[in-house]
Amino acid sequence: MKFKFLILIALLQFSYSVKINAQKIERPNIVWIVSEDNSKHYLKLYDKTGAATPNIEKLAETGVVFNHAFSNTPVCSAARSTLIASSYGPRLGTHYHRKMVKVPMPNGVEMFPAYLKKAGYYTTNNAKEDYNIITGANVWDDSSKKATWRDRKPNQPFYHVYNIGTTHEGQMHFTEEDVKAGTKTDQSKVFVQPNHPQTALFRYSVARYHDRIQQMDAQVGEVIDNLKKDGLFEDTFIFYYGDHGGVLPGSKGYINEMGLHVPLVVHIPSKYKDLVSVKAGTRNDGFVSFVDFGATVLNLAGIKTPKGIDGKPFLGKGVSKRDLDKRDETFSYTNRMDEKYDMVRAVRKGKYKYARNYEPFNFDGLMNNYRYKQLGYQQWKTLYKEGKLNKDQSKFFEPKQPEELYNVEIDPYELNNLATKPAYQSVLKSLRKNLNKRVCGMPDLSFYPEFYLINNAFKNPVAFGQKHKKDIKKYIETANLMLLTFDKAKSKLQKGLQSKDPWVRYWSVISCSAFGDEAKGFTSIAKDISKKDVELINRVRAAEFLGLIKAENPTEVMTQSLYASNDGAEALLILNSIVLMEDCKANYSFNIDQSKLKSKVLEEPQVLRRLEYLNK
Fold first, then answer.
1. 85-141 pLDDT, tens per residue?
2. Which of 128, 251, 507, 512 is placed for a possible disulfide with 245 were both Cys, Cβ 3.0 to 4.6 Å?
3. Shortest CA distance to 206 belongs to which of 266, 247, 234, 252?
């Protein structure tokens, strides 16, 4: 009897083991196919003027097309950091491109593939990381150009990322000889968007980009074919998406829809169709953002969303179609793109897009060396200087308003700012409140200058933000003085300019620059700050204000502050103001003696890029 009982126990244990193993085997595989620098506007799947992508279009037949998928930021390292951390960059300090210093993940939180790996998944990345975060050893089984799902154990579920660089911006750094060689795409039939010069060079640029998109599509097809050959197509959720906006001038690196609104197609394997609430072969209007992608992968794998991340799943268990349909918001951000600074935040809700320009005098066309390797950028700038552009085409090179509001469904190129229109004030105020709640709640670390964060916050950015939440709110309120009429802001600005807190002074001066000539009454206070402030950057910001209103030539203050700096990040921010002063309509002339710069400053590559431009 005892022997039979032991046999029964053994059989039950074996049965339980088989069930557990079966559960492990039954978990879906997940593959991300990522193409670089593609917004949805340049694919025919989304826009009739876009390039045909037969492989992506075929994938859509067995999946769902997301009509509203967004990168939270319009450039690579910041976007990929958002993806891998499943959290907003301004909260983590991961949103500067490229990083000067890598930051750690928040305490108790890991990059999301680490949770997959712990659950038994084989995690591979082929082959681009480009994170602004310190990568833990437990994230990838293999992250290299040789990484493949084929190296996993038998029946082991896998998560695989495949990166395609064919459409990267660098492919648009063509020469005059390339232009003469022509394109496969018919240049006479391409669409040149209305804010671009309607020139032969821009037609060539669009056609060349379409050629690269079609090459990229073929590579997408190769990955899908390999999954089919391995008998994995119906075991695998396949995400195709662009890593941020396109590479035509004024898209990548800018917080408009061309920089943020990406294609996203998710193949739904028939084996797991009951795991999601959407049906294959459909399109969905729910808003999804990069911050949500990691949480979605974990949810599809049956892993609980970790505490401490910002993302919310948009597919998988517990996500109904009704939940997905109700999603109608996305939040986006940009600060430093390579050597160019411009702090902008945006919220899109439904058809309305609200952008908050915290430094509206930093016009979009301000020099960025990598962008201006494109002949299109160069021609655009030349035509502007020659006065040969219309109002819409000139907008890229003009100072901005602190607030912008667009109906992007009828104005996709964001040319008609509705922020001052009486009929849209309720929408404006609602989205302004939405954005302020977000930046205060995170809190958004960028209300401190980047160099200050590097030196004081980046060992634990999230903890620093929580500790200084009240201070950050105070800086946000100071920055928002520029949204008032000058008469209402005047007394608070005067108090702020005389504050003992250096960053209240910093944002007070910036608000004065946003008001421009209306703030001329603060000229004497600004002159005092430019000569005596203990913070070099405040001296520079005050000189910037004086230069913009043409009250005083800023060259001496800015140059001497640059020479006095012993911090590469601080010097870079100073140089941004110097480039602005050279490129603005006042057109001040600088003569930087590189031998007077501190050796530590010259170690920063971004500084060298600014100097390269200034010394031409």
1. 999 999 999 999 999 999 999 999 999 999 999 999 999 999 999 999 999 999 999
2. 251
3. 247
DSSP state at residue 134: P
Give the SS3 label for residue 278.
coil
Please tell me the CATH superfamily of domain 17-185+215-319, with its number: Alkaline Phosphatase, subunit A (3.40.720.10)
Distance CA 74, CA 82 (A): 11
Nearest to 160 by CA among 111, 117, 119: 117
Residue 474 has pLDDT above 50, yes or no: yes
CA angle 261, 218, 191 (to 5 degrees): 50
Tokens of 331: 């939040």
CA angle 237, 106, 471 (to 5 degrees): 125
| Mean pLDDT for the chain overall | 95
Buried b (16+ CB within 10 A) or exposed e, 422-453: eebeebbeebbeebbebbbebbbbbbbbbbbb
* pTM of the shown model: 0.95
pLDDT single digits (tens) 263-307: 999 999 999 999 999 999 999 999 999 999 999 999 999 999 999
Going by C-beta distance under 8 Å and a sequence separation of 6 or more, which residues neighbour residue 457? 93, 445, 448, 464, 465
Residue 338: left if φ>0, alpha if ψ -120 to 50, beta else—which one? left
